[in-house]
Every structure is written in structure tokens, then in C-alpha cells.
Amino acid sequence: MAKLNINIGNLEFKNPVMTASGTFGYGVEFADFIDLNRLGGFIVKGTTLHHREGNPYPRMAEVPMGMLNAVGLQNKGIDYFIDNIYPQLKGYDSNVIINVSGSTIEDYVATAEKCNELDKIPAIELNISCPNVKEGGMAFGTSCQSAEAVVSAVRKAYNKTLIVKLSPNVSDIASIAKAAEFAGADSVSLINTLLGMAVNAETQKPLLSTITGGMSGAAVKPIALRMVWQVYNAVKIPIVGLGGIMNATDAIEFLLCGATAVQLGTANFIDPQITVKVVDGINEYLDRHGYKDVNEIIGALKINN
Amino acid sequence: MKKTILNLRVVSKEYPGSNYVLLKLTTIDDSPLPIMQPGQFAELKVENSPNTFLRRPISINFVDLEKNQVWFLIQMIGDGTRKLGDLIEGDLLNVILPLGNKFTTDLKPGSKVLLVGGGVGTAPMLYLGAVLKQNSINVSFLLGARDKEALLQLDIFAKYGDLYTTTEDGSHGEKGYVVDHSILNKEEFDFIYTCGPKPMMMAISKYADQKNIECEVSLENKMACGFGVCLCCVENTKEGHKCVCSEGPVFNLKKLLWQN
Ligand SMILES: Cc1cc2nc3c(=O)[nH]c(=O)nc-3n(C[C@H](O)[C@H](O)[C@H](O)COP(=O)(O)OP(=O)(O)OC[C@H]3O[C@@H](n4cnc5c(N)ncnc54)[C@H](O)[C@@H]3O)c2cc1C
Ligand SMILES: Cc1cc2nc3c(=O)[nH]c(=O)nc-3n(C[C@H](O)[C@H](O)[C@H](O)COP(=O)(O)O)c2cc1C
Ligand code: FES
Question: What is the ipTM of this complex?
């Protein structure tokens, strides 16, 4: 049994496996399937200052080895979370992280301030990369200036661990990561979904109400790995890698490319027990290769031979 | 109701219609199946189908408590359902169940109810009819399909209530759509349940609404997870977006925003 603990900023995780926002509900929905205490952390669904109804149906289209979604941050707002969900999550022995989304810098800051007051929430993940909302969302994550502006503003309002979630829908993700690091992020997570589209040739209509949507699942892994590797070579802060991880081997590939931790998203829909299987699989890999500590394989990709 | 992930074994496979399979499954260790209610569904894992990334939602067609079997009636319309149709006796199928809410079954004994199903939407109506009959409720089934080959499981339906049918080509029962069946003008019902193509359910809902009859509809919105975490399957209701997989699939007509 190798040591699986990792650190992001000052925050310790019992293992590098977390869940991706929007794919794990509030976590409690998985209590029938897994022991949530076995997760390094779980990131609850995208939360905004005010209630959001999200986009109209249809919101989902399956594509080869993946899916598109156009949920559009449906959630009941941070106050509802604090009053109704937070009490249910307080007792878990895992890092519960809120994915904070917004349309304006003021919204992000106001939501982050409220999160700062929650004792049992040790970190937030700032979502500056949602492709499914009209204003804000991804717009903040697609230029260095706006990324820096929103991260700096939230950094002032939030004094616990701040993870910034990056959009892959940019020409140079490393420069956005550097802007987030410069603005005070403790970590960056990547990738959010890739902007995509699906069409029904027979009806000649788009399959999503929003026409375009965010792609996730196995098919996006090569792009996500490439981006993690590029960001790893550009920043010093730890990276949380995600995008298309379906099993422990996929997760290990992200660690080798420089991710300190990983998140599982769409894979939870197909196997709701996948997270704990990945924890076990990483452990088995480390034992089999004679490693004593998971940190030994982070960024250990061999490129010169 | 606790949701479980389990491997079930195919005990038998039947072909009730040209493009349909009926799979009867049981547990691999003879442990009792989880308790399932009419209206609930399962998410089936499709193996070896490169174009099938997600699980497939399929209704509980019937639960045979004596034999410890659950039945799935599957219409083969795409790669995923065709792969499910390739399963043979002895094969294992990974399922998550039971999912979703359920139809109302605790009506006053002696109530008169109509269960309307179209196409593969007849699937959940069988188990519903069986449970209602057990609760001493007077069940009538009104089932519609394109032609008589597509009217499925009629023998078994007949065990649990009066059976009325329509076909578009007139090859079985009355010619036309279910909503045109003469039974709707002849009899009075206390409660209507419906599942099938949306235009059919809308027409039946309109009838129920006009006659002021309680009506529950079962929706089949596209799903990614099936257990309430992705928010992909929402139906817009009078109370906002509701997840069909976890807050449905059964909705009281009064909650929906359908144009009546
Ligand atoms: C709660 C629920 C219960 C269901 N119960 C049953 C059942 O008991 N028996 C059964 O045969 N089917 C049932 N279905 C429908 C079944 O899930 C789909 O037919 C199946 O997912 C299609 O998979 P596929 O890979 O074969 O086809 P795909 O290749 O995915 O699709 C083939 C075609 O069917 C359409 N389609 C797929 N899913 C749906 C959907 N949910 N609604 C409308 N159109 C769709 C696609 O747009 C496409 O045109 C149910 C669906 C839901 C949501
Ligand atoms: C249905 C759905 C909803 C999502 N909602 C959010 C969200 O609210 N906030 C966010 O930062 N990312 C959201 N995501 C993106 C995921 O967290 C993740 O970045 C992406 O799906 C890639 O990982 P995967 O391939 O493992 O799913 C969502 C993804 C899906 C599929
Ligand atoms: S299908 Fe995921 S919430 Fe309903």
C-alpha cells in the first residue's frame, strides 16, 4: 500500500481522486453506490449567486465515446446550498469543494465570500470556463486579462484553497494558466468541456436546444492530456487534471503528464463506482511498479528515451 | 429506495414482435431482486458497442416475484438496443435499478382505471396493471400500435384487465389512434395512466383534462446518468425544470406545461 496523500496549496487530500463538477450532483446521490469518505475530494455542482433554471431541453446528445451537454448551470443558488445541502455534507471525511460560477466579477466575489464562511468547505473551484451560459462563464477563461481580473478579485475575498478551472476552448491554455497563477490561484484544474455540436441529418435540426454544447467523455482525453502537459511545463502551482478519464490507467496517464490530482466526470454516469475503483487501481499500479508514494509519479513522463 | 448496481443473468429471451426482444433476468446468486415499483426503470450497460457510450434507460416491464425475475421489453431502434437484443440465455447484463419515482397504485379498491400505452410505451403498463389488479382496482388497458405485429404481450395483459386495442392499419382492434377508441366515450374512468409517443400522450392528456380525470404520464426524455446528477433530462413543469429520471419519469398531468 503506497502513500496516496497529495497536497494542493495548504490542503491535504487523502488520495488524488476527486469528482468533476456537474457530474456528481451534491455527492449524496452517490451514497447508495460508494463510501464518499474514500474520495480525496468531491466537487459539487456549479453554484451561482442566484437561482438559475438552466437551458431548455434537449440538453444532451451522445457522440462516439462521449457526450455533449448544454445544462447551463441549473442550480438553486448559493444560499439554498448553504441552508439545505451544506448540512448534509458537513459530516463527510473528504474535501468537499464548491464549483463557483458567475456572470459578473461581482457575482463570483459575492459567492466566494459566502463560501469563505463555510467551515467544512476547505476550497472552491472557480469555474471560468462554462461554455453553456450566454454571459460570463467561459468568456472569463478565454483571455488572460479577464481571467486575471476575476481570479484576483476572488483571491481578495477568499482565503482558503482556490482552484481555477480552465477552458480548453482557447488557443494557448498555458498562458491562461499563468495568468491565473499570477493572480493568486493555488491550483488550476483542466479541462472543462470542449465546445461542440451535433446535428440530426434526417430532421435537419441541431440535437441541443442551444445548438452548441460542451463535449466530455473518453473522446476528449488526448486533448486534455496534451493541455495538462502544456500547463505543467508553464506553471509551478499544482494541476488537477480531468477530461475523459474512464479508469485508473487514464488517471495515471494524467499524473504522469503532471497532474497532482484528477477528477472523474462523465465516467460516473456509466459506472457510479468508478471513483473508488480508480483509487484502488492507482494503488495497485504504485505497488506493482514499486513506488512508495503517489507523488513519485507526478510529472514522471519519460520523454528522453 | 436504495439504488443498486448488479449483474443479472439472462434466463430467457423471447421475440414478442418483429423488432422487439423480451429479456427475463434474475440475480446471479439467487438473492432476491431489489424491490421495484411500477413506473420505475433501470439503466442497462451495453457492452461491445463502440457507438454506445452511455447506459440505456429501459422500463421495468414486469416483476415475477415467484421466479425472482425482472423483464425488459426492448425495441431495437439503434446500436445500443440492438446489442441488448443480441444477448442470449446465460449472458450477464449490468444494471442500475430501481430508478425514478412510480405510478400511484394505492387507489380506492374498486376504482376504475384506464392504462393507455402506445408502441414500446406499453412496457411499463404491464407491471402497473398487475399491481393495480392486486390492489383490487378495476383495470382496462388501451394499447395502440402501427399494426398487429407491433401489439405486444396481449395474452399477459389480458390476465390483468379488460383489453382494448387500436392499430393504424386496422389489423387488430379499432382502426386509428388510441385517442379515437370508442371506449373513451362509452366508459367513465377514475384515473388514467399513459406512456408512449408524446403526441399520443398529449392527446390522452387532453381527453383526461376535459373530463377532469386524474392522469399520470410517464416521460422518456433523453438521459445521461439516470439517477439525478447530470440535469440533462429535465422537463419544464409548473415548478420549473424537473429531472425526469429522479423526480419522474411519472408526472401528474397537472404539473406539466403541455398545451391542453
Ligand atoms: C425512462 C425511460 C424508459 C424507457 N423504457 C424503454 C423500454 O422499456 N423499452 C424500450 O425499448 N425503450 C425504452 N426507452 C427508450 C430507450 O431508452 C431508447 O430507445 C434507447 O436508449 C435507444 O438506444 P439505441 O442505442 O438503440 O438508439 P440510439 O442510436 O441512441 O437512438 C436511435 C434513435 O432513437 C432516438 N432516441 C433514443 N433515445 C430516445 C429517447 N429517450 N426518446 C426519444 N427518442 C430517443 C434517437 O434520437 C435516434 O433517432 C426508455 C427511455 C426512457 C428515458
Ligand atoms: C452534464 C455535465 C454538467 C457539467 N457541469 C459543470 C459545472 O457546473 N461546472 C463545471 O465547472 N464543469 C461542469 N462540467 C464539466 C465537467 O466538470 C468536466 O470538466 C468535463 O465533463 C470533462 O471531464 P469528463 O470528460 O471526465 O467528464 C459538466 C459536465 C457535464 C457532462
Ligand atoms: S439523466 Fe442525469 S439527471 Fe436525469
Answer: 0.96
